[in-house]
């Protein structure tokens, strides 16, 4: 067992040495922790002493419930098939070559998984000021919020491992567990959605149900919710009981895992380990959606290359899209259009804000595109050698490399905005302008990916590069937020406000195109 801890200690030291050599990466981590400290200061200074804002509390509890469900339910369901913990091939191979009991190898994997969970916890803690605003929780609430995320991220992995081993030894329970998890998820979501009906304010109706104490009675999900509620109410007896129950469940899962984790368990984990390696490789290459199309058969299409120089890159991307979709229409298109229609049906009309349904849909997509999904051209295209051998201007290469994804997003958004405008009698021109703004954001994401790849290369984690893009995106969003505030305070016409936003982000796109074009000048990365 000493050797396993030696591997962990040596890996940590090598990571620190590499970080010291990479000054930009070190700066990125310093900025990350700086944002954590800044978040604590903002939350502390925001403590007014006036008590908890009921609306903010409802919003906070609803968002946390959604994040808990999105974390717990998929994890529990996936571990009923193949093991869902982040095993790597090195862990599995160690079983058959290292002179250790399988339980010790499992403990080694869980410790390394805990380090990865800690990084996720840091990313969520950075957003504490946005989630805890209005709770009047102060700096203690900030630390309780971080503690709640630490409990969630560290406990779910051993729980899933224990459930997987129980399912492996008692396969007859598999169908029952799957049915129970699906029924639970559908019941929770259905209960919240039904709150939108029979009321004049659908959003408040759903928030009222999502923040209901009824969820505290649900095992595991309710326990996590109770710990997150401590940010607003402090540590209560309910919080302590929930924490004790989670600790008991984790301990039981670890005992089961260490007692019954034989080589059969790791043989079954090999398949999932291969998928894990493939997924991590795809993320590192910037191809986050690789698994989305993995099992999708390519259609046979007739296609002839007619262009020359860098325009061939654009034709190649068109050919790949035609094989996987129907004229730039795929599953992402369906998601975007459906999301816009859903938002349009939920958001109520506001007389003071014209085209409020279109604006709400645009804000939602900006959040998904910029903060969560990071849609755009990834490093996959940068690894293609022909990109650097084509004798063409760097700016033309850049445009042909990135323009198609932007056009596709604009097309999806405009169709969604058009449908919402027709159904709910909104201004179609406002939808057109929102589509252009989203097009600009996608182009900005592509340029940021190229710039970050040039700065960081393959030596740093995708998590750090994603965090740097996140910081850039926050800065880029400031002009749009400022215009939105001016629109509300100065009664500026919405059309004029949207045109100003378009011009601002057009300028930002043009400015970022210069370093992005430089980044594809040669294939050498730091």
From TrEMBL:
The chain crosses the membrane at residues 24-44, 59-80, 114-131, 143-167, 179-198, 240-258, 326-346, 358-377, 398-423, 429-450, 470-490, 496-520. It comes from the Bacteria. Keywords: Membrane, Transmembrane, Transmembrane helix. This is Putative ABC exporter.
